[in-house]
Amino acid sequence: MIVFDWEAIKGIVKRELIKYFRAKGQIISSLIMPIIFMIFLRPGFANIGGPTPTFDIMNYLGAGIICMVFIMSGIMMTGMPIMFDKMMGFEDIYAVAPVKRRNLVLGFLLAGALKSCFMALIVIIIGLFTGLFPYDWGLGWAGMLVSIVPLALTMFLGALIYGCIGLCIAAKTDMTNSFLWNNLINMPLIFVSGAIIPIDAFGGQAKYALLCNPTTWMADAIRVFLGGEIGTAGTANEFFGGNFVLGYLLDLAVLGLFGIILFGGSLTESAGGFSGTIQKKSAEIREKMFKGLDPEDRQVMMKVTSKINMLQMGQIMGFAGDGRQDLAIKMLKEAGISDEDINKFFAAGMHMMEKMQKQAKK
């Protein structure tokens, strides 16, 4: 059973949110394009000449633009902090953090999802002034309030899905290549889906390819509770003759499946990326720490510390310095280190302390 350290996750989320809300310019710049789309793209598409659609194109596009916000912000807002931490060398902190790597991954994922939902909320508020309201179910304001809760849950699920994609990209690429991959993935997710163009418009067998895109299901689920297009132009109409309840349940089921697959992949890929980077940083720290030792002492220190992390090493040296050598020996034996190497390790540690004291006196 996978257990998460929620205190560690909370720390990552808090750190990322503080960084985000302090960068006012980043917030404003990231909101400009979606707001322009909401104000100008919707009426522009709605007024293009042609056959009158059987649904409200303004409402239809409104949900699609919300999906665009999640795609662009979810992938960037989740993956970029990891890329910047790589660039700034924050893996040194991760290397000594006494938490499992999956906690770091989940912390970045939740932080990215919250940032995406905040951006979507701003765009939805702008949409309210252009006629994009939560569906009222014939109950007026009370019905709109009822729609808000499932709408929020649906959007948060979508933010997590796109955040998983951002984590996988960040774990496997550097800063330059990550921008290329983001642009390569964003456009198909937005336009090769039912977010902007109704799936029926693709015709033939091509429309079924759109069902492999999570954005199609995400946009359709949002429309159930935002704008009032309750599946008449989406999956409910395609599979259930317009029954929006069955259509929405299908949307959630497919989104849940995408979420499980992508979350499992992000844990594997991102934790692997974290672990690889952390192992490299840990090796660099050990090389620097043991650089001045004699070859034999340096060899045994590198051998022992390859089996324990730097935090454990600090605890072992602390126990030895406090005269609790039995606890230090117990930790080393639990790490699979032989008695001979333990004796050499303590001797090398004494030599290292002597060198440090001499350097301090100088």
Outline of the structure:
The chain has 362 residues and is mainly α. Helix content is 77%, strand content 0%. The chain contains 15 helices and no strands.
Features:
362 residues, mainly alpha
Largest sheet: none
Query: How many strands appear in the DSSP assignment?
Result: 0
Number of domains as seen in the coordinates? 2
Number of helices, where a helix is a run of at least 4 consecutive DSSP H or I residues: 15
Overall spatial form: elongated
What structural class do you assign from the helix and strand content? mainly alpha
Give the terminus-to-terminus CA distance: 53 Å
β-strand amount:
under 5%
Description:
The chain contains 15 helices and no strands. It is an all-alpha fold and 362 residues long. The chain folds into two domains: 275 residues, no CATH class; 72 residues, no CATH class. Helix 9 packs across helix 11. The longest helix is centred in the last third of the chain and has 46 residues. The two termini are 53 Å apart. About 2% of the residues have low confidence.
List the helices and strands and how they pair.
Blueprint: H1 6-22, H2 24-46, H3 57-88, H4 91-96, H5 101-128, H6 141-172, H7 175-191, H8 206-209, H9 214-225, H10 235-240, H11 244-289, H12 295-305, H13 310-321, H14 325-334, H15 339-361
